């Protein structure tokens, strides 16, 4: 399975990245990520919603999310996890489907093939949350950027922070 | 990493398969497969040749072969291994490149995306050699078949048998 060390070196030509320090321990951030009921609460920028999530949390396991617009239009995104290292590293790709079948064109994933990885790095009492998204080429990176990568992924990290802040308060 | 049990169920609509009993033990067949100098001797139907092979034999590792026509035209095929279980199971895909970067279109792999797996199953003193090739859709399977899958993969298994037969004679 992928380990962080096998990950492609970041290439500004083809890749996108976003990171943020979250004021909550890795345990909580990992849990908000990997519990589908929690993930649904922050995965897409509101007022969009995530009515469905399938996550089979192991390399090769399905990772499918359905995004829904405020008007009720649904967008399916399917792929598989390629790495699951609890509380450290999770990565998934749209290029393969369960059973390791190649996905072919990118119709099942919003028109853009990507492999994304999240590193959860302990940072004092908090977490350094580092997302890197690899694309096959410059055109895909540009399309993803034009679709609002930085706003979108930035917003959902804020939503994730809300969830873990509430979890932290509950834990007290 | 992929284990055989995670492999997609064979679908005659989208997939191709070929199997053969080889009269040599799994040890020898595995070694003829995983030693690049031996693999070069049987990987493509003669008089085509395989002037270059890169194999980094681990999940995520590069698997790149260059096929050359008798006229000297070269065809590059790149991908990564997704499973390497010594003497039991090896699988690779053209849908991802090293670093788990999605490959995008299929220009780097002869126009067809596939994930292929080989099972090496002990069968008495011999080996049951079972190749399964998964495609994203029916059109890719048909194109692969029209390009001569059965002849091509059949011929190279014969060439593999020649190599392991020679290895068996040497070992005596």
From TrEMBL, chains A, B:
Superkingdom to which the source organism belongs: Bacteria
> In this protein, which residues make up the domain named Activator of Hsp90 ATPase homologue 1/2-like C-terminal?
23-164
Q: Which residues cross the membrane?
A: none
- What family classification does the UniProt entry report for this protein? Belongs to the AHA1 family.
User: Matching Pfam families, A to Z?
Assistant: AHSA1
What this protein is called in its record is: Activator of HSP90 ATPase
Q: Which organism is it from?
A: Maricaulis virginensis
């Amino acid at each position: 399975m992928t380990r962080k060390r096998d990950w492609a070196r970041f290439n500004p030509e083809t890749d996108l990245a976003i990171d943020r320090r979250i004021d909550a321990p890795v345990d909580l951030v990992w849990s908000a990520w990997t519990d589908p009921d929690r993930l649904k609460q922050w995965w897409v920028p509101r007022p969009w919603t995530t009515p469905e999530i399938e996550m089979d949390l192991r390399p090769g396991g399905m990772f499918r999310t359905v995004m829904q617009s405020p008007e009720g239009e649904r967008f399916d995104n399917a792929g598989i996890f390629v790495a699951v290292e609890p509380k450290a590293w999770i990565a998934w790709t749209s290029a393969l489907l369960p059973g390791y079948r190649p996905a072919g064109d990118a119709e099942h994933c919003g028109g853009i093939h990507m492999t994304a990885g999240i590193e959860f790095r302990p940072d004092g009492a908090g977490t350094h949350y580092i997302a890197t998204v690899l694309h096959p080429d410059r055109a895909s990176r540009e399309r993803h950027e034009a679709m609002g990568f930085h706003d979108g992924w930035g917003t959902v990290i804020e939503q994730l922070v809300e969830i873990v802040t509430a979890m932290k308060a509950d834990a007290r």
